[in-house]
Amino acid sequence: MSSVHNRALSPAELQAFGAELDALRARQLATLGARDARYIRRVVAAVRWTGVAGRALLFLGAFVHSVLIPAWIAGVVMLALSKILENMELAHNVIHGQYDWMGDPQLQGSTYEWDIVGTADNWRKTHNFRHHTYTNVRGLDDDIGYGLLRIFPEQRWRPFYLMQPVVAVVFALLFEWGIAIQDLRLGRVFAGKMTLRQLGAQFRPVGRKMGKQMFKDYLLFPALAGPFFLPVLLGNVAANLIRNVWTYVIIFCGHFTADAETFPKECVRDESRGHWYLRQLRGSSNLTGGKLMNVMSGNLSHQIEHHFYPDIPANRYAAIAVEVKDICARYGQHYNTGSLPRQFGQVMWRIVRHAFPSKPGRARALPAVGEASRQPG
């Protein structure tokens, strides 16, 4: 458990804390415009052209054997970059509805479909609703360990968790597949709470998406290379693995560092606005690293700001963070940030430490709740 101490807030301070953060959100929404539209369209172009370059380089290496290795490596890097940008900076943010105000049918959060084996519809349920509404609330946020890992001592230990250092590595490599089946909740079948027929009905749209993605990456594009099918296939596999591992690292750093907290279900009952912001703050972790880190992480390097304002274009988070840090400092609240090696090192320690039995630490209660409120956006 973290040794961080946050100053206790009185009901009046808690209300003022929420009001200041609400006011910051309102100022940002009032100024959305051409700069934001131009930015996301540049991201769309970057995704398209890095993808084209990556696939072209894979074909070049396949047909011109004198440059096979360097072209293959460059092709994998460019294709992985395209997939990372699409998943992190484009799809994740568009699906949150950050660009619905533009009226562009290709950038609508309710209809956008992304380049992974999981469906955007399932992500909208598991992530946009469940995770963002009940961030780090045990029993309500399925992202706590994803049903596979014990990361916090408050999670009940089972012998299966002894394997989790290995499970975590496999999960990182196959992260898009874990995301794809997350909403299926396979444990309900083993518990007798869902029939195989019901599971099959839920799986059909997921299965169609899996088939479409596998056909594109592992059959269509490799087949276009004719007799050089194998190097193109392996290039696609490698690009997807790189994207999966990077996404896993960024997402795990967002909520599973040493200073991140989990909360009991009772904390969301009649949750006030200030209380909701406080829970998002204490359950989230940021990353330092500058503009490159921001873009490559889909601006989840500012996970705190993202959880405060999931419907505000993420390219604004770096500027918003300056004000958020100031507000947190004035109210005596810890702002959890650090370098990628530091934050992910803490995540890995949690995974290894809590594979073994451990006693829950003393719970740190949030302030008493006041008026009822809900998540923005």
Low-confidence stretches: 368-377
**What structural class do the secondary elements suggest?**
mainly alpha
Q: Quick one: biggest sheet? A: 2 strands, parallel
Shape: globular
Q: How many β-strands, per DSSP?
A: 2
Radius of gyration (Å) = 22 Å
| Oligomerization state | single chain
Organism: Stenotrophomonas bentonitica
Enzyme class: oxidoreductase
Keywords: Membrane, Oxidoreductase, Transmembrane, Transmembrane helix
EC number: 1.14.19.-
Textual characterization of the structure:
α8 crosses α9. The protein has a two-stranded parallel sheet. The protein contains 14 helices and two strands. It has one domain. It is globular and about 70 Å long. With 377 residues, it is mainly alpha-helical. The C terminus is likely disordered.
Compact overview of the structure:
By secondary structure, the chain is an all-alpha fold.
Secondary-structure blueprint:
Elements: H1 11-30, H2 34-63, H3 68-95, H4 120-133, H5 164-173, H6 175-181, H7 187-190, H8 196-224, H9 229-255, H10 273-282, E1 286-287, H11 290-296, H12 303-308, H13 317-330, E2 337-338, H14 340-353
Parallel strand pairs: 1-2
Helix pairs in contact: 1-10, 1-13, 2-3, 2-9, 3-9, 8-9, 9-14
Pfam families: FA_desaturase
Keywords: Membrane, Oxidoreductase, Transmembrane, Transmembrane helix
InterPro entries: FA_desaturase_dom, Fatty_acid_desaturase
